[in-house]
Amino acid sequence: MDDAAEAPFIDPESDYPCCWFCPALRLPRTGFLVADRPSRDWPFDAADGFRYTTDTRTPVCVHPGRVGLAAQRTARTYPEPPLPALDTGEPGGPGRPRRWWRFGRPGPRAGAAPR
To answer: Which helix (H) or strand (E) holds 51?
Structure first.
């Protein structure tokens, strides 16, 4: 039996700059994937500290530079949700800008003595 095959990819006692919860510290190289960055495609599981792929639940390291490996997976780019339309037809509605002096608050120079 070869014990080196089951050893973690990175020795926890080394000076490697990987995260304390990285799968490279706990799993052999064949036990995890490497992604280019954090993403919704491999969400974090707080129960054990790993990120997993959503389809096969394989652990994922998201800092390829810290473990010295090339990224195998690339995160998808999700479109930003559209902003809600402002209603500008009604006076005093949400489309009309509010002024700070209409709320009875002192202005930025209130109380300052002239020099």
So the answer is: strand 50-52
Burial (CB count <10 Å: 0-12, 13-18, 19+), residue 69 = middle
Nearest CA to 63 among 17, 10, 11?
17
Q: For residues 74 and 24, what is the distance between their CA atoms, to the nearest angstrom?
A: 18
Of residues 11, 28, 30, the one with CA closest to residue 72: 30
Amino acid at 55: D
| pLDDT per position as a tens digit, 40-92 | 899 999 998 899 998 899 999 998 888 888 998 888 888 877 877 766 555 55
User: Are 24 and 67 spatial neighbours (Cβ–Cβ below 8 Å)?
Assistant: yes
φ, ψ at 33 (rounded to 5°): -105, 165
User: Half-sphere exposure (CA, 13 Å, Cβ side) for 35?
Assistant: 21
Residue found by looking up tokens 């036990």 in the block: 31
DSSP state of 94: T
pLDDT of residue 52: 94
